[in-house]
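To whoever is on call:

I kicked off a structure prediction for a single chain this morning and the downstream step that reads the tokens threw a length-mismatch warning. I double-checked the sequence; it's 211 residues and nothing unusual in it as far as I can see. Pasting both halves so you can look.
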Amino acid sequence: MRRFFGGSKNVPAPTLDEANKRLDNNIGGLDEKIRKLDQELSVYRQQLKNTRPGPAQNGIKAKAMRVLKQKKMYEAQRNQLSQQSFNMEQTKFATQSMQDTIITVGAMKQGAKEMKKQFKQIDIEDVDSLQDEMQDLLDFNNEIQESMSRAYSTPDSLDETELEAELMSMEDDLELEETPSYLMAPSAPTSEPQAVDEFGLPEPAHQHLVN
């Protein structure tokens, strides 16, 4: 068929975007033709209402029928092109999804290759050995901390009784230091002073009574 229409093997096939754009233009042209036919039909319907039955009305009706058939033909073509456009959109979507899948798979393959190179640089036995060494170091550090925080015990020669007595003595001294001086003055005598003679000696009680 290419021979009849002058086709060439070197002509590249249109892309999905180009083909779909061409379909959209054709659909737009058909929509415009259908719109004009609707306007013409509207005129004929108005004329049929204003014309009495007879040859004139039959002539208007024949024209309207011809326009209506043409409209139906354009609508069928538009529906076909719309379906083709939908199919091409679906094909485009599937093609784009497949392209995305190819890119994703390629990225995953590259990632797997990089992971294999990295795993070759790591020995699981070395990792286990490192973990054991780190655990030993942490345990040793805990032992050091426990040793540094150990409380020093008192000498065995100290007697608990002596310590308690010293503590009580310290409490008494502390109370004396905190007591005001005016509270520590001697109390006033409660009995009358005893009389003394001229030599400063106390007089007998009976002599004091006689006088």
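Update from on-call: the warning came from a stale cache, not from the record. Cleared it. Sanity check on the structure: Residues 96 and 143 are 64 Å apart (CA to CA).
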